[in-house]
Design goal:
Helices cover 27% and strands 31% of the residues. It has 192 residues and is an alpha+beta fold. Strands 1, 2, 3, 4, 5, 8 and 9 form a 7-stranded antiparallel beta sheet that branches. A 3-stranded antiparallel beta sheet has the order 6-7-10.
């Protein structure tokens, strides 16, 4: 019974993350290079707003400036994170390139637990944030409904979701193609 509940919780997040073809929050403003917040990847667990993304064969939205589109198309995944116009460029395991704004959450993990979906060999990582991270994410949820956020660790995007009012900072799940060993290792790394 619990597995069905988890699937109901996780399936919409996975579906939304998989269906996102072109992103950004519709805002024309990008962080400036002189912004005093962290631009470079911490290498730890981060939650960052997505300014744009590029996946081979998936067109970007018309709101993305052509020079950024060209830069994202020229990236080769896997890659080390790098800065581009005051934002961070990172890839995910599926070779999608993300252009990320400064982090909302950075290493604010209180707990991380590997959990099984159903009775198969599919696992995910349930993440609980500390008070600082939870408060930061909660304010974004209120103000940024409809925008995309990415969850990353070690300089690689793990997953991304579109912010909606049902997203809760106390119920976060890192969904990927994880088996038990991979999910357990990621949970240990994220919570270290």
């Amino acid at each position: 019974m619990g597995a069905v509940r988890h699937l109901r919780t996780l399936a919409p997040l996975a579906l939304v993350a998989g269906l996102m073809g072109a992103c950004g929050n519709g805002s024309d403003s990008s962080p400036s290079a002189t912004d005093s917040t962290l631009v470079k990847s911490s290498g730890g667990f981060e939650i960052r707003p997505v300014y744009a993304r590029y996946a081979p064969g998936v067109p970007l939205g018309p709101q993305i400036p052509q020079n950024l589109t060209n830069e994202l198309q020229q990236q080769s995944c896997p890659m080390k994170p790098r800065e581009l116009q005051g934002m961070l460029v990172e890839c995910d395991a599926g070779k999608t390139v993300y252009l990320l704004k400064n982090p909302i959450v950075s290493d604010d993990v209180a707990s991380a637990t590997a959990k099984q979906i159903g009775h198969g060999n599919t696992w995910y990582v349930s993440v609980g944030l500390n008070q600082t991270g939870s408060s930061s994410l909660e304010s974004v949820i209120k103000d940024e409904v409809g925008s995309e956020i990415a969850f990353s660790y070690g300089g690689q995007v793990l997953t991304s979701v579109v912010v909606d009012s049902s997203l809760h900072p106390d119920h976060l799940a890192l969904i990927g193609n994880f088996d038990k060993a991979q999910a357990t290792k990621l949970a240990q790394q994220v919570s270290a």
